[in-house]
Specification:
By secondary structure, the chain is mainly alpha-helical. Helix content is about 65%, strand content about 0%.
Length: about 100
């Protein structure tokens, strides 16, 4: 599937592979922490890019089907539907229907 990746995504994935290959466990952990901190800030913007792409395809006349969008964006059908609803692409990103009881 690596040949299916965009050039930019491939470079990012290669860089992550390099982080995992750092010999020193402390340096590797520091690098992993930096990547995870950046991802935490960047993830909402990346999800917004997905949502806008889905919105654009659904706005076509006729609308692109969810299955075709999922194939095009390399996401599951459920992820596409959740993203369009504003829930992100994972169950953990869905807002709670009611506050959690303590």
């Amino acid at each position: 599937m690596a040949e299916d990746r965009t050039e930019e995504a491939h470079r990012v994935i290669d860089a992550l592979d390099q982080v995992e290959a750092i010999d020193d466990p402390i340096e590797r952990a520091v690098a992993a922490s930096e990547v995870l901190a950046d991802y935490k800030d960047r993830a909402p913007r990346l999800r917004e890019l997905q949502r806008k792409a889905i919105e654009t395809m659904r706005a076509e006349d006729p609308p692109v089907s969810y299955r075709k969008i999922a194939a095009r964006l390399r996401l599951s059908l459920g992820a596409v539907q959740n993203i369009e609803r504003g829930h992100g692409s994972a169950w953990g990103t869905k807002p709670r229907a009611k506050p959690a009881e303590e």
